[in-house]
Amino acid sequence: MCIDIVLIGMTVNSLVLAVGQGINTLLKLSAFVLLLHAYVSYKRKSALFWSLAFLVDALSIVSDIVSEQYGLAIFQALAVSLLFYGAFILLEEEGMSPSQPYIKNIAGLAPLILTLYIITYYALKEGANPSFDELALMYGIAGFFHFFTGALLFGLHGVYMKRGTYLAAAFMIYGIHKMDYPFLRPVEWFAPIGFILGALFTLFEVVLVLVVVSSDEFRNLNRPVSQVDFKEGVMIISPREYPKIKEHLRDAPVLAFLRKVKEAPENWEVYFITKVAGYRSISPTEPEKIVELSCRYLIEAKKKGISGVILLDCIEYLRAYNEFISIAKFLSALKDYITVYGGTLVLVIDSTAWDEKEMGMLKRVLGVEV
């Protein structure tokens, strides 16, 4: 009787384990297909690296199913290398890359090189035979880099807001779960639970990756930008001149930060400057987000060999929430990006709302004739 109960328990465990592994594999393969489609559609290299990461991760599960421990370790290391490198590429695409490009190359290859080094040691050393513990430890190391990928992605909050934060948290949580593999995989009763948890974490991770990839911020980075016959640099126009400029730019994908968003042309990429939290809204107390978005927009325009146009019709509103010196620094930063990457910065300013001294200082900061 006791033997029968034990056998039934073992059968249930094996069944749950197989279900967990199957769901995990299916989710990763689905993510591979969807991310590959995103790469083909939007030409974002980060989507390509992440699609390959999920494909290779699925192969690591297959290796575990057939008890091919070398395959498990190598595929896990390669998957997390692709994931880690893809995170650097995404940050680079958003204008937040490390100052030295070689850093991402070294960091991205680190988990794979480390794993191959350990495996090579056991392959070449006479009489050496890696046990499950050593190979599982390599899996745990991959989990650490998975966790660190999430830490890197916290830098996306300024672009993707809460979606970027949730995605970073999902990577970190799944990384922690992978790090417990060397400790809990040999525990027979926990192995099925571990794979079910892995399937749930994978589901959350895949859903959040797809939410980010399908967002306007991700898709529009590579949107074609039309050439506009504006002189590069900074333009200050009055509210009376704005309708004419708006009509001239109607068909150009302008990056605009406005108060009157309903009046903007459909082809513009518009952000609402407001204290009310919502989709594509930026608080007037956070002008640095305007700078971040402008930077990545100008970088992409320069890659295409053309000039972008950034338009702000909210300066007086920003002034109401910030000290004048903060506004001057903010506009100076925008002007510097225009200088470095090219393009045109159009500022709609009502000169009657500023005193003469402030207006003169703004023009000097922006390099506009006084």
From TrEMBL:
<feature type="transmembrane region" description="Helical">
    <location>
        <begin position="190"/>
        <end position="213"/>
    </location>
</feature>
<feature type="transmembrane region" description="Helical">
    <location>
        <begin position="166"/>
        <end position="184"/>
    </location>
</feature>
<protein>
    <recommendedName>
        <fullName>DUF835 domain-containing protein</fullName>
    </recommendedName>
</protein>
<keyword id="KW-0812">Transmembrane</keyword>
<feature type="transmembrane region" description="Helical">
    <location>
        <begin position="72"/>
        <end position="91"/>
    </location>
</feature>
<keyword id="KW-0472">Membrane</keyword>
<feature type="transmembrane region" description="Helical">
    <location>
        <begin position="47"/>
        <end position="66"/>
    </location>
</feature>
<dbReference type="Pfam" id="PF05763">
    <property type="entry name" value="DUF835"/>
</dbReference>
<feature type="transmembrane region" description="Helical">
    <location>
        <begin position="136"/>
        <end position="154"/>
    </location>
</feature>
<feature type="transmembrane region" description="Helical">
    <location>
        <begin position="15"/>
        <end position="40"/>
    </location>
</feature>
<feature type="domain" description="DUF835">
    <location>
        <begin position="243"/>
        <end position="365"/>
    </location>
</feature>
<dbReference type="InterPro" id="IPR008553">
    <property type="entry name" value="DUF835"/>
</dbReference>
<feature type="transmembrane region" description="Helical">
    <location>
        <begin position="103"/>
        <end position="124"/>
    </location>
</feature>
<keyword id="KW-1133">Transmembrane helix</keyword>
